[in-house]
Amino acid sequence: HVQLVESGGGSVQAGGSLRLSCAAGRYTYRRNCMGWFRQRPGKDREGLAVLWIGGATTVYADSVKGRFIITRDKAKDLVYLQMNGLQPEDTGMYYCAAGFGTECDLRPGEYDYWGQGTQVTVS
After folding, report:
1. Spatial separation of the C-alpha atoms in residues 123 and 15, rounded to whole Å
2. Distance between CA 54 and CA 34 in Å, rounded?
3. Are strands 113-114 and 78-83 parallel, antiparallel or unpaired?
């Protein structure tokens, strides 16, 4: 069964914006960390932005710092990734993930549940 569901991907011109959403499944309710990751063609999966559920601390990759913002709607239990100033190199599959560890960082291996991804294409 699917634990996390992403939405909001699509095609956009360079300089444009998109907002991704992630709905967490009930089996992830004890998670400490939520993150957004990206896999570009021919590249390893990379962490972009993560959020500590308890304290709302965020961590960003240098490549997206100042352009992407991760937020959480606690009432709806949704996590968002607002992406501004998109560039062709941002093209890839974007994944939401939940982790139960005590350290929220950008390493994909630290996350336990993953969504199926949503495609973002920037031209």
Report:
1. 9
2. 11
3. unpaired
d(CA 62, CA 71): 18
Structure tokens at 84: 């501004």
Q: HEC string of the chain?
A: CCCEEEECCEEECCCCCEEEEEEECHHHCCCCEEEEEEECCCCCCEEEEEEECCCCCEEECCCCCCCEEEEEECCCCEEEEEECCCCHHHCEEEEEEEECCCCCCCCHHHCCEEECCEEEEEC
Distance CA(63)–CA(39), nearest Å, equals 13
pLDDT (tens digit, 0 to 9) for every residue of the chain, 123 residues total?
557 999 999 999 999 999 999 998 766 667 889 999 999 999 999 999 999 987 779 999 999 999 999 999 988 889 999 999 999 999 999 999 999 888 889 999 999 899 999 999 999
Q: Nearest CA to 52 among 25, 76, 33, 65?
A: 33
